[in-house]
Amino acid sequence: MQKSLLKWAVTIGSGVVIAIIPPPDGVAYSSWLLLAIFIATIVGSIVQPLTGSAIVLLGVTATAVFGVLKPFDALKGYADPVVWIVLSAFFLSIAVIKTGLGRRIALLFIRALGKSTFGLSYALIGTDFVLASVVPSNGARNGGIVIPIALSVSESYDSRPDDGTAGRLGEYLMYLLYQCEVVIGATFLTGHAGNFVMQKLANENAGLNVTYFGWLAAAIVPSLVSLAIIPAFIYRFSPPEIRSTPGAASFAREELKRMGAVSRDEWIVIGTLVGVIFIWTMQGRLHSIDPSIVALSGIGFLLLTKVLTWPELMGEKNAWSTFIWYGGLVNMATALGETGLTKLFAQTVAAQTTGMTWMMALAILLVVYFYAHYLFASVTAHALAMYVPFLMVTITAGAPAGLAVLALNYFSTLSASLTHFGTTPGPIYFGTGYAKQSTWWKIGFIASLINIAVFATIGTAWWKLLGWW
Fold first, then answer.
1. 244 forms bridges with which residues in the sheet?
2. Which of 13, 193, 209, 389 would suit a FRET pair with 187, their CA atoms being 20 to 30 Å apart?
3. In angstroms, rounded to a whole number, what is the distance separating the alpha carbons of residues 240 and 34?
4. Exposed, middle or buried, 190 (CB in 10 Å: 0-12/13-18/19+)?
5. What pLDDT is attached to residue 307?
6. Which residue has the higher pLDDT, 365 or 157?
7. How confident is the model at residue 469 (pLDDT cuts 50, 70, 90)?
8. CB 64 within 8 A of CB 71
9. Are 173 and 430 in contact (CB under 8 A)?
10. What pairs with residue 116 in β-bridges?
């Protein structure tokens, strides 16, 4: 009870503190009050006296109750196409898991690569990599497919979290898979749902539309380098006691035999995912259909073919919870940007970089942005709170818009490596009981240095070659 009261005190107090401070010259009090509500919502999403979605719903309601936004404006975030893409992403994830397609892909990788611990880890990484190209829910990919298989294999080698055998295999896999998931999440626009929000913010504030293949093309080289270095680092930092896993390949073969041939529903899901991505990539060439309508059309096709049923979609609590979360926060962040407060913040911070070269200013600002994620339990919340101000600051400092956008896009997701609560799969991996928090944070910090170094050197050189700056 006392802990809950403290969380409420922190949540409400953060907004009250802002609200009672006189707004800067030229800033209307209603705009200042919107900032107070937004900050209280972000803080509440972190400390969670209620679930994050419930806190956002309260924040949306508060903007109308206090007259900051008209009811229509307070609720219009739920009509934003980006929010419907996120909802569709969760529904597509249901189909991948329900039909067994995701599990089949994982088993095929394990059968091919799983004879050694290192090979097994890359089989599971490869599974996540392939699924991330079409399934934007990192929680569904990992919680529904990768983690259950990793747990099954660990237990088959007598590695369990509660009897002193975690170090045989399971502990290593949990550290490794999470850190690689963070990189994979940054690789694809569909790597996690928050990437669509960053795509929208970049388009609205810098005039740059990073398409599906544009995002992938810019990320693929530095991401593959990171995915080569990080497993080797974790293998040395927290090595598994078991180095050979021939039983994993045998396990995969037996499971694939049990599953039989690819089913009709699996083929339909494959065709739907390929079709959705193809139509996305043809926007502006063959058609002008919004990506959200394309995604919803894919869901409609899965309903018509009875791969999915309406009750299944209605029962997907995480999808609807995320819908409430995204719609409310995206709208508040957009409304806040329209007040001019983010521009004022950018000008104030940019003044502190006077005299610096734009490269030095960009480097400092990106490091601050990256490690601020220690304070966030969500990549999306981090981006909504800080992406636009930092984007404007870096551009004001003279950084090329393309370079600033790509750096912030990838750093937003890569920063989730720091903690065990940095993004949705983190609590799932940590909740298996294999990992130690102190070791997790050490690995996360070192992995962050690796990712920053790779994307700041190889990444920026690659983006220059591609013509982004």
1. 116
2. 389
3. 50
4. buried
5. 95
6. 365
7. very high
8. yes
9. no
10. 244
Q: What is the pLDDT of residues 271-290, one digit of tens each?
A: 998 888 788 777 777 888 88
- Residues contacting residue 297 through CB under 8 Å, at least 6 positions apart: 276
Separation of alpha carbons 318 and 312, rounded Å:
12
Residues contacting 60, CB < 8 A, separation 6+:
74, 75, 77, 328, 331, 332
Token code pair at residue 225? 């380098």
- End-to-end Cα spacing for the chain: 53
**What pLDDT is attached to residue 62?**
94
Six-digit token pair at 205?
């504030």
Quickly list DSSP for 147-214.
Answer: HHHHHHHHHHTT--TTTT-GGGTHHHHHHHHHHHHHHHHHHSTTSSTHHHHHHHHHHHHH-----HHH
Q: Are 364 and 394 in contact (CB under 8 A)?
A: no
Instruction: Provide, rounded to the nearest whole percent, the portion of the chain with pLDDT above 70.
Output: 98
Residue 346 is predicted with a pLDDT of: 65
State both tokens at 388.
Answer: 């636009």
Q: Tokens 């791969």 identify what position?
A: 307
Q: Residue 377: its pLDDT value, please?
A: 67
Q: Is 244 helix (H, G, I), strand (E, B) or coil?
A: strand
Residue 319 CA to residue 88 CA, distance in Å, equals 8
Helix (H), strand (E) at residue 33: helix 29-47
51: left (phi over 0), alpha (psi -120 to 50) or beta: beta
- Decide: 169 and 242 in contact? Cβ < 8 Å: yes
pLDDT in tens, 36-76: 998 898 788 778 888 878 998 999 999 999 999 999 999 99
pLDDT at 87: 82
Read off the pLDDT of residues 299-315 as tens digits, 9 standing for 90 and up. Answer: 999 999 999 999 999 98
CA dihedral (310, 102, 150, 414) in degrees, to 10, reads -90
Run of H or E including 75: helix 71-75
Residue 44's contacts (CB-CB under 8 Å, 6 or more residues apart) are: 7, 11, 50, 52, 55, 58, 59
Pairwise CA distance, residues 191 & 218, whole Å: 14
Give the separation between CA 15 and CA 96, rounded to whole angstroms.
41
- Name the residue among 294, 248, 300, 235 with its Cα closest to residue 447: 235
